[in-house]
Specification:
Number of strands: 11
Helix content: 25-40%
Distance between the termini: 41 Å
Number of helices: 13
Radius of gyration: 21 Å
Order of helices and strands: HHHHEEEEHEEHEHHEHEEHHEHH
Shape: globular
CATH topology: BirA Bifunctional Protein, domain 2
Strand content: 15-25%
CATH class: Alpha Beta
């Protein structure tokens, strides 16, 4: 492992303790390890961070009532605020279509694939279970004949087999994946932040709605979401905490601002490292935004994060962004060493201009429900598979996951 612009090896955090290395080298090792890694590294650490004295505010039946009421509220709210229409979404896609989401740039998270022999092997299909509908949505905008200012919203289900399974990471993923057609003039930081504010208005409204439905959720131990998000560029957070890795920076800033939108994720920051690795083929993280920020910045994308008062940890709700153009797609693929992807249908559609300019994102359903219903674990609001070590740890803390 080497640091950007330097041939010296950088040790990982574990080996750093037994080597004669500088504090800077240890910090850089932590940053590298943190770029796309899980929030929690092992079950010993999870045992230390699961909340003590937890008790669900809702019964299992009340939880199910709340889940479906909140789902309806948020879907209707997103469609109203962003002029979207609910549409069906694929669970499986052709492996050679290029529309599956690879989640990051390091190749560490690969989709579940399978072979459909079909017609005794005469007309086979190689398929993949989606990891998200991120790229499919952009192709669907054309399929559903959406014009500027119009878009789609999906009730997406996916499988991500390479996650470390903890309190807020599951191999089963559910999202409100949405996409909207935009014009060239709307490819700006101002348009991005305006869109985020409309989404935030829906989430805040959903919390108020479910608290009216179940007043017990108005617990003083768990303050409600603020009416407004705090917008920060990834460079701002790096300046605040230059020696900390990304997740630790997020944790620290959430102590000051309990709900934030971090702009500009994917392009290397002033320390030489991106805030987090991002896939090269959907969000535009390479666009120069210096004119808008008044300093060297890049990226038309970002994440909504909040402070979870139940788990007492950072809590990501949504990742979204203005999508790549033909030009920025080529630049990002080159930056990531993935130019060979341009031969696939999805990429050809962007390069040729057949696919419209768009903005879009995914809002984690179980993540949102976990937050709004004051739950300590994703498994309390969604059914998935978990290792016995995790369910035992949770049961010892009075956290009972659905099976």
């Amino acid at each position: 492992m080497t640091q950007a612009g330097d041939l010296r090896p950088v040790p990982d955090a574990a080996s750093a303790a037994t080597m004669a290395v500088t504090p800077w080298e240890v910090a850089m090792a932590d940053k590298i390890a943190d770029l796309a890694g899980p929030g929690i590294g092992d079950y010993a650490e999870l045992a230390r961070v699961l909340p003590e004295g937890y008790e669900s505010l809702l019964t299992p039946r009340q939880t199910q009532q709340a889940i479906f009421a909140v789902k309806d509220y948020i879907e209707q709210g997103l469609c109203r605020e962003l002029n979207l229409q609910m549409v069906t979404v694929p669970l499986i896609v052709a492996a050679d279509s290029g529309v599956n989401d690879m989640l990051d740039r390091d190749g560490s998270r690969t989709p579940v694939g399978f072979h459909i022999s079909n017609d005794h092997g005469q007309h086979p299909v190689d398929a993949q279970i989606v990891q998200a509908a991120t790229k499919w949505k952009r192709t669907a905008l054309r399929q559903f004949d959406c014009g500027p200012g119009e878009g789609i919203c999906t009730d997406m289900r996916a499988v991500r087999k390479d996650y470390f399974l903890d309190h807020d990471h599951s191999c089963y993923v559910d999202q409100w994946d949405w996409e909207q057609v935009i014009t060239e003039s709307q490819r700006s930081v101002d348009f991005l932040t305006g869109t985020v504010r409309r989404i935030w208005r829906v989430l805040v409204g959903a919390e108020r709605f479910v608290q009216e439905m179940f007043p017990v959720l108005k617990d003083p131990r768990y303050p409600s979401l603020p009416d407004e998000l705090t917008f920060l560029h990834a460079e701002d957070i790096l300046e605040m905490y230059p020696d900390l890795p990304r997740k630790r920076r997020e944790t620290m800033v959430l102590q000051r601002h309990p709900a934030i939108f971090i702009i500009g994720i994917g392009w290397p920051l002033s320390d030489g490292y991106p805030h987090e690795m991002r896939a090269a083929d959907y969000d535009d993280w390479i666009a120069d935004t210096s004119a808008a920020t008044g300093r060297p910045t890049h990226g038309l994308n970002g994440d909504i994060l909040v402070w979870n008062h139940v788990t007492r940890r950072r809590h990501e709700l949504s990742s979204m962004g203005i999508r790549v153009t033909a030009s920025t797609l080529r630049q990002q693929l080159e930056h990531a060493g993935q130019l060979s992807s341009l031969q696939l249908p999805y990429y050809r559609g962007i390069i040729s201009g057949e696919l419209p300019l768009s903005v879009g994102g995914g809002i984690g359903q179980s993540r949102t429900l976990m937050l709004l219903l004051r739950k300590a674990h994703l498994g309390e609001v969604s059914v998935s598979v978990w290792p016995k070590i995790l369910t035992d740890l949770c049961a010892a803390r009075n956290i009972h996951v659905l099976t």
